[in-house]
């Protein structure tokens, strides 16, 4: 048997209901219209008002057969009623926001580009302190559903029907080398010159294939040059080797933005480099409504919108 409400609790409940009646009558100046809004009869509205008036010993409304209007006491009471309901609605809103706030562990898979993504992740963590980020940085093609990732950022067209996607900013590949490399090597003037240079090539971890270089009229399959080179499955390692003067490297522009700005790397074959690549957010469709996933998707979509060039944020 459920517990019965105490007389105090019952009075409070009745008072809140009566306050709502007062507000509606004051707004509509009609018992009939107030009742329609509240799902009550006009007589029930009138009874509620009379009960309050008898309880307080004052008249809240003047009533005639043609109109209803507030008395001076009624106007003062109305101000208090509005304040009480505003406080109640504010408390309800605060509680609903608290329980709807994104929270929990969020597993994220991002490309190897810590200098680019780290500031964005830090901003996200500050904005959503109740989300615990579990980030995997790497070029491995993770299976979001099977491995339990909540969201990932990748390039290329999505080909998994279990995933939802959203476009982000785009980037282009650039061919770069350290100035010291050209102390003993000629600057390439056209794509055919690449065969005589030391090349630093990226091997895709999930396929083992060498990534083509976007030069000439189309992307070109590149092998090690006549003077050898280095193959690695990590872009960061290739950039470090390029900085050390070990050869030419084709990398996303956002990855070497600062190095190009400060002159530690120089770009070559600018007019021969073609095409752009788009980042995409991917997440399991079944998780689409999870507040933590939606917060991450909306956050990154706002900061890396489609059509924008992906560049590191300047501090």
UniProtKB/TrEMBL annotation:
<dbReference type="GO" id="GO:0006351">
    <property type="term" value="P:DNA-templated transcription"/>
</dbReference>
<dbReference type="InterPro" id="IPR000847">
    <property type="entry name" value="LysR_HTH_N"/>
</dbReference>
<keyword id="KW-0238">DNA-binding</keyword>
<keyword id="KW-0804">Transcription</keyword>
<dbReference type="GO" id="GO:0043565">
    <property type="term" value="F:sequence-specific DNA binding"/>
</dbReference>
<dbReference type="GO" id="GO:0003700">
    <property type="term" value="F:DNA-binding transcription factor activity"/>
</dbReference>
<dbReference type="Pfam" id="PF00126">
    <property type="entry name" value="HTH_1"/>
</dbReference>
<dbReference type="InterPro" id="IPR036390">
    <property type="entry name" value="WH_DNA-bd_sf"/>
</dbReference>
<protein>
    <submittedName>
        <fullName>LysR family transcriptional regulator</fullName>
    </submittedName>
</protein>
<dbReference type="InterPro" id="IPR005119">
    <property type="entry name" value="LysR_subst-bd"/>
</dbReference>
<feature type="domain" description="HTH lysR-type">
    <location>
        <begin position="14"/>
        <end position="71"/>
    </location>
</feature>
<dbReference type="InterPro" id="IPR058163">
    <property type="entry name" value="LysR-type_TF_proteobact-type"/>
</dbReference>
<dbReference type="InterPro" id="IPR036388">
    <property type="entry name" value="WH-like_DNA-bd_sf"/>
</dbReference>
<keyword id="KW-0805">Transcription regulation</keyword>
<dbReference type="Pfam" id="PF03466">
    <property type="entry name" value="LysR_substrate"/>
</dbReference>
<comment type="similarity">
    <text>Belongs to the LysR transcriptional regulatory family.</text>
</comment>
